[in-house]
Amino acid sequence: MDRTKQVIDEKEYQKLVNQKEPKPTLLKNIVWAFTVGGLICVLGQFFLNYFISKGMNPKDAGTPVSIIMVFLGAFFTGLGWYDLLGKRAGAGSIVPITGFANSVVSPAIEFRREGLVFGVGARMFQIAGPVIVFGISTAAIIGLIYYLVDKF
């Protein structure tokens, strides 16, 4: 009988929690994510157009644009601004290439107290490391398949 009372109390508690829990404003979150992600992409397109206007072909211009965008993501993460943007924009700030830079720099900043080797060096790729390994492995496998299909 005591257990039955406890189950009812847990159900009532969960009902109360569900009533009091703030509901996310889905439309507002979608608009912010779309706007911020779009503005980051517009900035990248601006740099791409700049390099193309200076005589680079579009394929080669992608490299300095990627470098600039990764640098900006890392720089703004170091200043603490990218985290503020991420709180507001959500997924809009993590999808572009700047989100990758943020995922590398954030753990490095967080663990810098542990030293350069065991803190920054060991933790820097804590989040981005699996993504890098998966990307390189997938590229190697696809490259091998392409080579074999093209060879035979």
Automatic annotation (TrEMBL):
Q: Which Pfam families match?
A: SpoVAC_SpoVAEB
Tell me the superkingdom of the source: Bacteria
Question: Transmembrane residues, as ranges?
Answer: 30-52, 64-82, 127-149
Q: What is the name of this protein?
A: Stage V sporulation protein AC
**What InterPro entries does the annotation carry?**
Spore_V_AC, SpoVA
For this protein, the record's NCBIfam families field holds: spore_V_AC
* Organism this protein belongs to: Caldanaerobius fijiensis DSM 17918
Q: Which keywords label this protein?
A: Membrane, Transmembrane, Transmembrane helix
Q: Does the keyword Transmembrane helix apply?
A: yes
Q: Does the keyword Transmembrane helix apply?
A: yes
